Amino acid sequence: HTLKPVGCFMLPGGECVDRSFAFVTLCITEDQSILAMCLASLCALLATTDPNCVVVIVNRWVYKAAWNVLLQSGVLPVLAPEWAPLDASHQHAHLQHRMYTFAKLEVFRMTQYARVATFDVDALFVRNGSALGDISASFAAARIPKGKDPSTYINSGILALKPDQLLYAELIERWRTGDYVLSFSDTDHGEQDVLYQHCILDQQCGSVDNLDACVWNHDSWLPGKFDRWCEPKHIIIRHNFRFTREHILAELLRTAMYRGTCRARSVVEPDDACFSQQEFTRERCCKQPWGDVQCWGDGHSYERCCHVVDDAARLRQELLIMRRSWYGFSSLPHPTPQSLFSRQCWHKYTEMPFTYTAMSSAWYLDVGSSQDNEVQEASSAEEKLSDFMMAFVTKCEGLGSPRIMEPPGVAVQFRIHMPEYFEHFQNYSEVQTMKAEYWSRFPPFRARLGGFLTTCVPRMCCMHQPTGVSSSDDGLRLILWNFVLIMLRPFEGGRYIAPDFSTALRRAARGVDAPLPSSEHIVGIRQVGQDGFRSCSRSES
After folding, report:
1. Strand positions, DSSP E, 383-443
2. How far apart are CA 74 and CA 16, in angstroms?
3. Residue 74: how many CB atoms within 10 A of its CB?
4. Which residues lie across from 22 on neighbouring strands?
5. Which residues neighbour 293 within 8 Å (Cβ) at sequence distance 6 or greater?
């Protein structure tokens, strides 16, 4: 369901159609983790703001590695100039380890755009940032209490400006001649020092405005304190984002970028890539309740290929879920709330619950498929199940895709004590109905196989946290119960997919569909891999 947006946002020669306002960022690196952070930051902008013009200044390595990923989302990659090192006589020649930051000065010569806003890749948009285009001053940056003079210091992580060729020439001359002071410390040297000298101290940039750091550059003042309280609901951009600090959110954003589904405008037409091979037709793959399991893998799923998945809407919700940490607001706060990983586990599961259910050897064994007879005729039923189950382990792992940086699924095996469950909740009418359906749907040989079920879940649902750390256990148990409900009523499965973890847990606790089994009813949860079993609960390490 992806839009091919190049024609919508760019002219054939490689320029934005809309030149009234452009967002610009830098991605100059030869490090995969930094590239991943660039893509995640860009995806957050696209999901929250969906701007008409986005430009990223890149080096040759990034251009080669990601130009197609950028173009498919309507992001224009522009090669940065390759400046010679500073002359030995330059007063700051001994501090050249951050020379790449001076590529940001290139935005001042982008006079094809009426206005430009720049953002660093460690800045994350959590709400719509289009109001940056309404700032009329020639130059705007957030003043924060840091640096050698906290009363005048600016942070150039977010800028709003009017490009000007003459101003660009002045900034480059000041940089190359060394006519500026170091504003932060005597050991830190970057483009911010040139901008601070020219625009703030010498007032050579025209009209200057202050970007409210509470709104546009939140947490940029850390580890110091800001001069007033900031309402979290007003935050549009938060600073100090790192891929390694917030890997779960960052992976979601990066994968959406590789898919080309960050923009709200990207959910418009069927994804023909799902049915590009002759044997994988829509008629075969999209039959109810979850299609043909052979169709799914390498990033393709029943939900994406047969229905509409609005990645941008899901990402906007995810970006707003943040709490305090030592480095500012984060999707992985400290201390970690007890339900955080369970919530993230459930949220990832709701992207494709039917595809995960389809990756279950138990389903194909228990509904009387051709494998049924094979199992019953086998001299060792458990051995035969293991062989058959491993094929589904491979399929589950194959849901991931290196092509779009989608992590693989995790196959888990568990035992559910249904007779004990029926007895414990016998006063619920829904449970009585379920009891009848269970014994009629699942054949008696289940008991001889040990009562194990196998299904596929998101990787983050089996995280092996140490004792004392917030766990995904509750979310995983809820998913396994959801799986049982969908298997019992596959054509009504949609009724069990609550949009968020809190709602799902509340419905299960109240017995809206059927009460959630306790840890005494769902037992023996373990990850199944090519090398054997591993506990999917807390580790003791």
Report:
1. 410-416
2. 9
3. 27
4. 116
5. 358, 359, 395
Measured at the CA of 330, the angle between CA 326 and CA 331, to 5 degrees, comes to: 140
How far apart CA 256 and CA 41 sit, in angstroms, is 11
Contact 269, 317 (CB under 8 A): no
The dihedral over CA atoms of 159, 162, 167, 169, expressed in degrees to the nearest 10, equals 80
H/E element, 75? strand 75-79
Structure tokens at 54: 């986005």
Separation of alpha carbons 436 and 210, rounded Å? 68
pTM of the predicted model, to two decimals? 0.89
Going by pLDDT thresholds of 50, 70 and 90, the confidence category of residue 15 is confident
- Please state, in angstroms and rounded to a whole number, the distance separating the CA atoms of residues 377 and 283: 33
Q: Which residues of 221-239 are buried (b: 16+ CB within 10 A; e: fewer)?
A: beeeeeeeebeeeebbbbb
- The whole-angstrom separation of Cα 125 and Cα 49 is 8
Which sign, positive or negative, has the C-alpha torsion 7, 12, 15, 21?
negative
Q: Please give the C-alpha separations between residue 529 and each of 52, 293, 395, 429, 461, in angstroms, as whole numbers.
A: 45, 19, 11, 38, 15
Max Cα distance, the chain (Å): 88
User: Residue 73 — pLDDT band, cuts 50, 70, 90?
Assistant: very high
pLDDT at 517: 84
- Does 517 sit behind a cis peptide bond, omega within 30 degrees of 0 on the bond before it? no
- Beta bridge partners, 413, equal 454, 526
Q: What average pLDDT does range 224-249 have in this prediction?
A: 94
